[in-house]
Specification:
Elements (H helix, E strand, L loop, with lengths): L36 H6 L11 E7 L2 E8 L4 H7 L4 H11 L3 H11 L13
Amino acid sequence: TCDSDGEIGFNPERPLYLHDVNLDEEDYFLGFFLVGAYQDTLGMKHNLFSSPSEVNVIFENDTMKLENFLESQSIMDIFEDLDYNPNEILNLLCEKIDNTKLQEILKAFIYDNSYLKTLAAKG
């Protein structure tokens, strides 16, 4: 469901027609992610958010593979797409910050994409 962790239960009176599957023998899951109008709007570049990172999840022989990973653009890339000079913006911001450590943190964020990550993801 949009904007929540919802679930759409199976109703035999009003089925959603999909692939042939015997639900008595195997589970069948469908995932719909980031499909609400809210998510669509956030992914528009004029909001300085890019589209989220994408990956194809392939299930084969009881294993899962991740293929065709496409990482989201960085904030600097988005600035450039909008015809701003990203280095000029970064330099102006760093001039306003009197702390070298904070400047490095700013650079790490602005050269990364705009989506949530965990520290474990950085390795």
